[in-house]
Structure formats: structure tokens, C-alpha cells
Amino acid sequence: MTMDKMNMMAEPPTFHPNPSKPAYVPPAGAVDAHCHVFGPAARFPYAPERKYTPTDAPKEMLFSLRRHLGFARSVIVQASCHGKDNAAMVDALEAEPETTRGVAVVAPTISDEELRAMDRAGVRAVRFNFLKRLVDAAPREDFQRIAERVAELGWHVVVYFEMPDLPDLAPFLRGLPTTVVVDHMGRPDVAEGTDAAPFRAFIELLEDEKFWVKVGCPERLTVEGPPYRDVVPFARRLVETYSDRVLWGTDWPHPNMKSHIPDDGLLVDLIPSIAPTPDLQRKLLVANPSRLYWGEK
């Protein structure tokens, strides 16, 4: 297939063309700890096995948005549309080595030298995606071997799953030899409320201090829609209970979003609702991600 045909197949943009300027001003050194880059496809083609074809959203757009929102640093997570070719993500890290870190997706056959090269570029974690609608299933033995190898580099593991899958996954996750960061609050069903059994099981998982959690992405979880007030009780409970192990990110450019195009300024303005004190905001946006990704005390 030609590049022109691939570009013609691209889905409509999932990112806002003119996001609002947030009223909330993040503290100095704030980190967007979950965002992505897409392409550009002419330089970084999308993976043949991808489940969706995004509109290009290159590093220049990401860095411009970060400044617009008032953030100082970014953690760029490898998106499933690029498969296990991390070139676009690594290129973004190398463009701004002081202000970016990365989360890679790798094959179990990756060489030690490739891992070391990504480490030098600023990669600090690997991501395991368990959503079958986004990626083809992989044997857990492969994930286990990968985790054991990256543990030697001091990396951690980021996991993406949906909450109904947690009972089956929990023993495997507990056995991983690294810190484990859960994306998007484990995707709870917000219509069930915070007292529902699945969310209580997730809270139980987080009692183990090896687990961290990202509390962003209300646009994916909401039932009511913007301004996502129905998601606030979930995120706020996690921030207040596990204040030293929470992270926040925009999820820009909001891959595979179908319901609406989120306004990133609105997402930032939700932060004081989930982290209601300056101390909680500093931990969420500065201290925690700086410790985990930059090794700062």
C-alpha cells in the first residue's frame, strides 16, 4: 500500500484544533505523564498490524500544546498504532532530552543493545497493553521475560487493561519484578460508582506499594460527558489515598476517541477537583513523575 493510500485511510483528528487556555496554572516543573506522538507517517509509518490509523500528531504539536497548557515536561507513551517500532517516540525524546521521558513497547526478541540505546534516549518503562480491541494478544510469558530484562535497567512496567479483566490479571501483575503503573485508573465503569465491587478490588490492588496509577483520561471514562464531573470521585479518591503514587496526563492526541474531541484546557482545569490542595497538586504533577521518570528526590 502506498503512503498516499495510508494517509487517505487516516481517521479524522481526535485532538482539538484550538484547545482553551486553562484557568488553572500548574505548579512549576509540572509533568504531563501520559501523552503520545503520531508520525508523521511520511517519516514514521504506522504499523501494518495497527487497529486504527490516526491523523499525524508529531512532536512539534505536542511540545507546543505542552507550553500552551503550562507544563514543563512530558512522558511520551508509545501508541499502539506504531506497534513495536518506537522510532517516532524516541525521535521526540532526542529532540528535547531534558524535558521528555518515554515508555516503549518492545518485542521479547529485542536485543540488549537496543534496550540500552532506548535507555540512553530517555526511555524509562515498557507498556503492556491487554486491550484486545487495540492489540493482538501476547503470551504473558513474553511480558514476564520483558519485565525481567528491563528491571535490570531500573525501568518499570506500565499496564493498560479494563477493570473486568483485573481478577484474571492481578496475580500476574503482582508477580512482575518492577514497579507497575496502571493507565487510566484501570478503566472503571463510572456508572457503578466508587463503592462497586470492581473498583474496590482495584483499591485492594493499590494497597501493594509496587502499584502506581494514572488518574487522567476522564474523557474515556465519562458517562455524562464534559466537564466529566462523574469521573471526579474516582480520581479524587485515588489521589487522596495514594498521593505518593499517582500521576496525571492529557492522553493527547487522544488516540481512537470516538465520542467527542476533548478540550485539553478543560482537562487541565479539572485537576483542582481531583487534587484539591496545593500539596496534592504538587505531588501529582511534579514530585511523583519527577521521582519515577527523572530519578529526582
Automatic annotation (TrEMBL):
Q: Name one GO molecular function term.
A: hydrolase activity
Using the record, list the residue span of the signal peptide; answer none if the entry has no such feature.
Answer: none
Lyase keyword on record: no
Ranges for domain Amidohydrolase-related come to: 31-293
From the Swiss-Prot or TrEMBL record, give the protein name: Metal-dependent hydrolase
Q: Which UniProt keywords apply?
A: Hydrolase
Pfam family for this entry, one: Amidohydro_2
Under CDD domains, the record lists: PDC_hydrolase
Does the keyword Hydrolase belong to this entry?
A: yes
Q: Which InterPro entries match?
A: Amidohydro-rel, Aro_Compnd_Degr_Hydrolases, GLI/LigI, Metal_Hydrolase
